Amino acid sequence: MDVKENFSYTNDHEWIKIEGNIALVGITDFAQSELGDIVFIEVETIGENLNKNEVFGTVEAVKTVSDLFIPVSGKVLEFNNALEDNPELVNDSPYDDGWIVKIEISNTNEIADLLDSEAYKSLIGQ
Q: Is 113 part of a structural domain of the chain?
């Protein structure tokens, strides 16, 4: 399983790549492999302010539907529109082309609660 060194992670298998107070959020390589082939991603929270760990969308795979949890409090700015026609980008490129939302972080103190790559590797048994 690929785990990026410069990203942060949650116990729910979301990743967050932070640049200033803006961040991209997606699901990890581990999560996409556990879900299987992703067929649909729904995000209806664009423009909304969400608290840490609130559901910002869902990911539907052949096997199941799973909620997506926001890793830190913030405003959902943008959905990766490429996923509308190609949700499999999350399977093929979970950390690059398969990002799901862009957020504006409202509470930077919450970043300290995230897992670094080593802690996440430990969580998934690597």
A: no
Q: Cα separation of 102 and 125, whole Å?
A: 28
**Pairing state between β 22-27 and 14-19:** antiparallel
**Is there a domain that residue 39 lies in?**
yes
Q: What is the pTM of this model?
A: 0.94
Please report which helix (H) or strand (E) contains residue 84, including its range: helix 82-85
Mean per-residue pLDDT, 76-88: 96
119 belongs to a structural domain: no
Largest CA distance in the chain: 37
Looking at the 3D structure of the chain, how many domains does it have?
Answer: 1
Phi, psi angle pair for 63, to nearest 5°? -85, -35
Domain range holding 90?
A: 8-107
Confidence of residue 10 (pLDDT cuts 50, 70, 90): very high
3-state secondary structure (DSSP) of residue 108: helix
Give the pLDDT score at 94: 96
